[in-house]
Model the fold of this input.
Amino acid sequence: MTEQHTDSNAAFMAAETHRPDDVPAGTPLTSLAQKQSEAGLRLLTQHDRDQGAAVSDALTKIALGEAIRQTVRHQRGSTVAEALRLGATWDQVAAALDTTELAAADDLRVWAEGQHNLYHQHLAENSDILVGLDDDGYNEVMRWFAFAVGRAVIDARDTYTEQEPLLRAAVAAVPMIDTVGELRALLDQLPDEMPLSLDDHHRALPGEENQVHTIHPRLVATVSGLATEAESKQSGLMLTQVYVPFPAEDEEQAAVATRDDLPAYGELPRAAYHLERGELRPGLKDIAEVLEELAHLVGEVAADYTEHDEDGSQLRVEAKRITHAAERVGKLADTVEEVAE
Done:
């Protein structure tokens, strides 16, 4: 240790430290630990001390504990990178951090991105000293990250393959979910890492007047590691809002909820459902209803909020044109002939 470092360390040891930012940048961890240990020892052994001095030692111990935690956290990324560079495996790194491999890898990714941005910031500022990760160092870390993600995908795929019959049975046993408790009971039977998605559209029986909504859970195939060597499919949970007949027996409602051919409840997605199947008449009728709703929004809702009367008049004119288009499409729906398959 140079004389300058010795003097700086002596000044730090003598100074009051009641906040983490009282610690000068670059102070060695050994000095932090030593000063905290000395404060803790005085608290344990010197019971007849002045109360103010005791309080000062207690605050010093707290502040230095936090400073040590922040320093170790700041250095963790570089330490993990060094361990991997020296040949440590991801399972060893995860065990050392008492976490999962995927969590450890993501933590390293966040650190690497921050260091990479820092490097390019210094580069853009033409700094004399470049701090952070250059492109080669960043790419090296990201290769380690990709390897860890690939391992996690393979492990998850194997786990889901073994568990899939149980997962399907658990989901099939709950065709309808109407309360938070029912959803919680189902989720308790599924892996925490299972992907979760929501259906884009509500589903409903066409032409059924009296309906109530429920939630239908189902297993769907999801893709992980898209366009990579680790790309694989695994089971995910999708929740769909379905309108089922009411009043009706539970079995009848469940039979509707579990149908996979139900069109969407809204006119626009339902129109797409019919038209994509060549069902022109119902699809065009839904389009006519969508146009009617658009005419209402343009001619009544939007027009009422215009600042100038002429703007509102123009919107009402456009609304009439949309209404006429809706009428023409509705009439066409009754006469159009569908192409025979």
